[in-house]
C-alpha cells in the first residue's frame, strides 16, 4: 500500500505545501493527495510540480475536486480539461469527484440520466488527457450505496470511470465494506481511510460542517479507535502492493493523529507479513 495524506486536512492551517511535504516524507507517507483548490492557488508557483514533489521522495497520486456535473456542458468540459491539466502538472493520473449532490433515493430518473451522461462526458475528456475520473462513495450522491454505485458504473459505461472507495461512507450507506469491496474491486483505484466514534456522529462529515472553520469535530477519531473495525478490511488491502490509499483526517491535532495512524498501519502490515516471512525462512 502506498499511503498518502490529504492536503484538505490542512484547509484551515497556515502551512505551505513544502512544510506538509517535508513532514509527510519524515513520517512514512509516500504521497500527497492534493486538494484541487490548493493546486489552483499554486499555479503561479511555476517550480511546484511533480519533479519538485519527487525531491521529497513523494508523489501526487490524485487531485480531489468537485466537477460541476449539474452545470451546462461547456462549463463541465472546461472544468474537466482544466482539472486534468492541473493533474498532469503534478504527475497525477487520477481526479476525484462526487456523483452529483442528490442521493440515489431522492433523484428523479431524468436527473439521474442527465448526471450519468454528464459524467460520461467528463470521462471522455479525462481519457483524452490520460486521466481517470474517480467517483467517491459518498452519502447524498449517486454513489451512496453499493447497488446505486454499480448501476452508475453501468450507466456511464466508460473505461475512464473508476471508484474512490471511502470505506467509512460505504459502511454509512448500510453496505458491508468487505462485500462492497469485492463487488467494486475491478473499478477501485484509490481508498479513503477514516473513522468515527459512532453512527450517531456521522453528521460531522457533512460537507457544510467539514469545510467550516468553526465546524464540529467531536466524533472524528483516529483510524483504529472508531466504530468501524478496519482490521479485516485492511487484511484484504495488504494482500496487494499496487494500491493507493489516503488517510483522510478532518479533525484537530493533525500531525499527531496522522503520524500515529500511519505508524499503526505500518505495524499492522508488518505483523500480518511476519508469518509469511517466517514460513519462507
Automatic annotation (TrEMBL):
Q: Which InterPro entries match?
A: IolE/XylAMocC-like, Xyl_isomerase-like_sf, Xyl_isomerase-like_TIM-brl
Q: Which residues form a coiled coil?
A: none
One of its Pfam families is: AP_endonuc_2
**Xylose isomerase-like TIM barrel domain: residues covered:** 22-256
The record's annotation in PANTHER family points to: HYDROXYPYRUVATE ISOMERASE, XYLOSE ISOMERASE-LIKE TIM BARREL DOMAIN-CONTAINING PROTEIN
Protein's recorded name: 3-dehydroshikimate dehydratase
Q: Which organism does this record belong to? A: Paramesorhizobium deserti
Amino acid at each position: 500500500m502506498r499511503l498518502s495524506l490529504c492536503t484538505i486536512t490542512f484547509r484551515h492551517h497556515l502551512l505551505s505545501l513544502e512544510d506538509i511535504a517535508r513532514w509527510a516524507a519524515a513520517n512514512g507517507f509516500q504521497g500527497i493527495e492534493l486538494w484541487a483548490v490548493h493546486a489552483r492557488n499554486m499555479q503561479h508557483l511555476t517550480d511546484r510540480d511533480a519533479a519538485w514533489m519527487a525531491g521529497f521522495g513523494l508523489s501526487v497520486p490524485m487531485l480531489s475536486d468537485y466537477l460541476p456535473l449539474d452545470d451546462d456542458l461547456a462549463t463541465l468540459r472546461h472544468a474537466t480539461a482544466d482539472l486534468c491539466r492541473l493533474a498532469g502538472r503534478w504527475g497525477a493520473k487520477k481526479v476525484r469527484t462526487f456523483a452529483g449532490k442528490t442521493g440515489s433515493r431522492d433523484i428523479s430518473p431524468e436527473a439521474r440520466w442527465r448526471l450519468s451522461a454528464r459524467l460520461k462526458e467528463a470521462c471522455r475528456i479525462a481519457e483524452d488527457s490520460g486521466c481517470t475520473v474517480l467517483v467517491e462513495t459518498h452519502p447524498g450522491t449517486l454513489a451512496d450505496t453499493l447497488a446505486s454505485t454499480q448501476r452508475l458504473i453501468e450507466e456511464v459505461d466508460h473505461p475512464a470511470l473508476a471508484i474512490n472507495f471511502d470505506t467509512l461512507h460505504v459502511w454509512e450507506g448500510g453496505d458491508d465494506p468487505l462485500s462492497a469491496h469485492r463487488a467494486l474491486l475491478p473499478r477501485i483505484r484509490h481508498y479513503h481511510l477514516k473513522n468515527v466514534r459512532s453512527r450517531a456522529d456521522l453528521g460531522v462529515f457533512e460537507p457544510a460542517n467539514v469545510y467550516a472553520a468553526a465546524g464540529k469535530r467531536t466524533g472524528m477519531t483516529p483510524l483504529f479507535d472508531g466504530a468501524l473495525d478496519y482490521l479485516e478490511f485492511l487484511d484484504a488491502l495488504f494482500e496487494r502492493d499496487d494500491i493507493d490509499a489516503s488517510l483522510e483526517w478532518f479533525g484537530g491535532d493533525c500531525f499527531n493523529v496522522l503520524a500515529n495512524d500511519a505508524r499503526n498501519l505500518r505495524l499492522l502490515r508488518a505483523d500480518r507479513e511476519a508469518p509469511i516471512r517466517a514460513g519462507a525462512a
